[in-house]
Design a protein that fits this description.
The structure is a single chain. By secondary structure, the chain is α/β, with parallel strands linked by helices. The chain has 2 domains: 141 residues, Glycogen Phosphorylase B (Rossmann fold, 3-Layer(aba) Sandwich), CATH 3.40.50; 184 residues, Glycogen Phosphorylase B (Rossmann fold, 3-Layer(aba) Sandwich). It has 14 helices and 11 strands. The strands form 2 sheets. It has a 6-stranded parallel beta sheet with strand order 8-7-6-9-10-11, sandwiched between helices. A 5-stranded parallel beta sheet has the order 3-2-1-4-5, sandwiched between helices. Helix 8 packs across helix 11 and helix 9 packs across helix 14. The longest helix is centred in the N-terminal third of the chain and has 15 residues. The protein is globular, with a radius of gyration of 21 Å.
Amino acid sequence: MSLLVIRTSSMGDVIMTLPLLRSFASAYPDEELVFVTKKPFDHFVSDNTGIRVFLSDHHGRHRGLGGLYRLWRELRAHYNITAIADLHDVIRSKIVRTLFRLDGCRIAVIDKERALRRRLVRGRLSAPITHTVERYRAVFARAGYPLDILPGPWLKPSPAGSKEASAQAEGKVRPLIGVAPLARHRLKMWPADRMEAMLRMLSARCECTIFLFGSPDEASTISEMVSRVPGAIPVAGTISLDGEIALISQLTLMVAMDSSNMHLAAMLGVDTLSIWGATHPRAGFSAWGMPEENQIQIPDTQLTCRPCTIYGKGECRRGDLACLEWITPEMVLKRVLDRLKRE
């Protein structure tokens, strides 16, 4: 018998499945879990014993209705699927799970708590929404697989990635500090001049090595930042994803926006400071396993417009990005130095 788990995007959401995948493999060693995702997200889960990764080719053989029918047939031919945990709940996953429902499979679907999210951004909800990892766990339970989540780390570097990372870190002054200064949306990103000022002050106050992380698409922006922060080392676009995972695992501290790098560092068990603007940890997407004190933000008692978005899309209601502009380099530097002292 096999449990089919579906989550194909986005990167942060896929990363947050890792505590459940590792816990499943430990709790149900005689059961098989088939995880449907897409490249390059297989890098996050391929080392899990007992987890079978099946790649959905959205733009190729699994494109459109015919492609989804083909996906169902391929899964059906290779595995004895008896239950579905749909962690995505989008049109593609709905079609696939409906086809399996016709086979008599048990179906469990994530509750995205959309009504609560609307209340949160309208300022009518002060309690936190269930964390995404916990909502994933509820889906597993409804699919017939209740889980106790194992302690982290929930992601392990590959041997090839570790070799690549060791070459990057060799001879570098420690502690190694990672910084992921970018995010997909402007409402989640601390202004570059503030980040650069903080990093220059950190370099002056502390003997350390600073690595700047980002996607290959962000490499040029990261390089520009490095040119204004003496001694910082760009990682974006310079090593493979496996190498990046391994390098993050060697860090003493990661400083990140509300982004996939924040989730990646947390899953690797690295102490992670997260900077929040228009989004809010209460929306259920905070760094899993990190203490609340690691969240840097302007309290919503001071800025009652926070949060104004769940994912970072849209425009600032005030027009001045106060949620990000009010966070000073000194505020972040103090939190960084405090965390380094604890090490």
